[in-house]
Each structure stands twice: as C-alpha cells, then as structure tokens.
Amino acid sequence: MKRREFLKTACLATACILPACKSTVKYADAIQQGNKLVVDKSLFLANSIVTIAYNQHGIGITKLDDNTFAASLLTCTHQGCAVSVEENGFICPCHGARFNNVGQVTKGPAEENLTSFITSNNQQFVYVHLL
Ligand code: FES
C-alpha cells in the first residue's frame, strides 16, 4: 500500500473518532439534474468542505451538520479571483480577502459575501439549487 493510500485509509478509519483528522476539502464531480447539482453525501464523511466544478471557479459546499449544508460560489466578490478553501472557510489569493465557511466576509478588501446557493438534502444526496 502506498503512503498516500495508507494515510487516506487511516484518516477515513478514524474520521468518526478523531474529528481533527477530517480533511478540509475534497474535489468531487457533481451531476446536474435540471437546475440542481447533485453531490453524494458520503463525501462529507471524511471532508468538511467539498468543492465541485461549476462555471469558472466552482462551488464550495460546507457541511454544517448532518442535514445542513451551505454552498458558496468560489469567485471573490472583490475583483473576481478564484477563492481557495482554507481551514473553516475560504481565502482569496489576490488581495487576501477571507470568508467564513458559509461565505460571509470576515476580512476585506471584499465587502460582499460570496454568492450563496440554496441547498437541500436527503439520506443520500446534497442538492445545490442553481440560481
Ligand atoms: S479579488 Fe479577492 S480580495 Fe481582491
């Protein structure tokens, strides 16, 4: 078993015991169904934030609890750079704006929150309702 596979397996095996082991981000594919993007809920067992492809920069989906998810467009509201996932939120590499895990501005120069999407979920999937 390669080192990366071992670490992934070890992290998954202990995810329920050691929340600190939880990965911050997972890049995943989403299926579009009408005006919704569909993401497998199991991705959130080992990841607190999952990013999916959408338009230019993608969407970050944050698990807030078992039945509550927030989805934010990963385009900075300052000058349109792609924001990256960081511990507990998002950061813009261009001028340093920061956003919390639901896309609210916590540090400028951005003055507006990330564009958010309504989400819903069932036992198996998270749905991001596109604007
Ligand atoms: S474009 Fe993001 S902080 Fe300026």
Protein architecture, described:
With 131 residues, the chain is mainly β. It has a single domain (23-129), classed as 3-layer Sandwich (Rieske Iron-sulfur Protein). It has one helix spanning 3-14, and strands at 23-28, 31-33, 36-40, 47-52, 59-65, 68-73, 84-86, 89-91, 98-100, 105-107, 116-121, 125-129. The protein has an 8-stranded mixed sheet with strand order 1-4-5-6-11-12-3-2, with no helix packed on it. A 4-stranded antiparallel sheet has the order 7-8-9-10, with no helix packed on it. The radius of gyration is 15 Å and the shape is globular. Bound molecules: FE2/S2 (inorganic) cluster (FES). FE2/S2 (inorganic) cluster (FES) is lined by residues 76, 78-79, 81, 92, 94-97, 109-110. Residues 76, 78-79, 81, 92, 94-97, 109-110 line the site of FE2/S2 (inorganic) cluster (FES).
